[in-house]
What does this fold into?
Amino acid sequence: MLYAKRRQDQIYKLDKAISESIQRIRYHVNEGHHIDSSVERQVMDLVLEREEIHKLVKDMMIACSTSSKSRRSVSSAATSAKESAVEGSSTSPPLIVGISKDLTMAKDQYYIHLAFALSERGHHGTQDSAGPTTSSSSNTTHVQYGRRVQIPLLTFCETLATEFESTLTSTAMCFIADASSSLSSRVFSALFQKCSSCLEIPLVQEPAWMTTVALLLRRKEITEKQAEKILYSLCRMQVLKLEWEQRIGSRHKTVVFVLPGQGCTAVLLPLLQKIFPCERHVFAYDGCVDSVKRGTAMGRWNKKRGVEDPASLVPFYGMERNVSAVVPLAPMMKKLPQLPDLLAKLSKDMASVVEAWMSSVDAMIELKENEKKNMYTPFVCRMEFLLKGENVEEDNRVLMLEERGRLALCNVLQYITGSRSRALDDATLDAAQSVLMDLRREWRKEVAGFVEMSQSTRTEIEDCVFLHKMILIGDKTLPDTVIPKVEWSLKAAKKLTSCACCFPGEEGEGDDEDGSQADDKEDNEVMVDEFAVSTVKSTASRNTTYVDGKSKFAFDPSVFTGMK
It folds into this structure.
């Protein structure tokens, strides 16, 4: 069967990419030297006993607590404790090198490999644990790594999770999920990196270890409960590392996690929402057709030019985008049995991206369907609001590209930074807008360079998407997409034509969950453009329990008018 054959090729590609990511991180830890695994094993500490693991975790938590106190009160004792912790190189939060088996020890045991920083040279500038190793000026940080540790994955994460469950943090987390073939990853990563001086929000960008956890769960090598423990403990450890490095700004106190590409979203997003229901979540998407063009283009650079596509570049610790954005970890075959026959009409690369995009959108829709239970209320961000250059009618005036893009940018930054009630300063918005303008120019060049897609191929892609009953071309948006406005809302407009206290025809408007005014029909008109294939809920099939005031009264009005 063609679908099964392609699936085997996808999993092989994913396994290879995970292995290469571990080697890339080891290369970074070894300061640019390739060291044979047998040699590296000689300097690797095996921490296997539960008591040793508990001591390692306790020492790390104590060191970070001491560091936090030293920042609040200038104490020589606290400062010396921190310095000794750095010199010891085993108490500061470590870099996650990777997750893998060690066949020389146990065939069914997974280990996590950690590297502890030995010293830092220079100044605050590079992002080692939560960003690419780049610097915009002479302010650079070079990290040397000392102790390397190999620990049983589950025991370590369970111990770490227990410690974090009893530890409060004032730092918020924001998770950005993708359904745009990594367009959103590139845009938001560039924004927070290039505006780091004014936003002061560090970035954990598409970490490879998250992809590994998602793959292990899909293979049923770990249970869902175990995956939750791993994600919870390692995300909290990444935040702790950034707090230790004093890279989290005092104003917004937020760390942004950009999840690996759309192929992993269906596995990771439900778990992260369950673990962190009160943290911020962004779901950023683009049309299926444009996502297919972008996803298939990322692989062509390597084949034609022998170099990496700039669009697929990630930090040293990140997962390759031309894999994470293309390979669907949660195939749609079980939900849509007819899908393999339609995907067979497409090329291998196109079929893979279509299924990855559909799986990501499906995960978001499923969460939204049960939002009252799972508390999933994300900022649904349509990337074309940030990047596309058409004029839009709103509030009886023409909203030009720059103004609409600035509003969309302001809205999403307000949400991510948690600053909706206290406006972002003009300098921050101007800097972000300047970065967005550069990104918009890059995006236009990228779109112009896409291989032209025939109408028949576009139709075949749409046929695949139409199999999903909740995905329609409709008005081109996902449910609850945030419309660029000064008074924006996380929830779509819900307008009542009458309430139980009014006669038919007396209209009353219901407020949404955020207390903002309900949007009107003009908001839907904003959506109508040439956007390819996107999603919207079908309201025609939705059963409601309220009385329709247009057709009948909610009660007998004569009871209140003295007519009886």
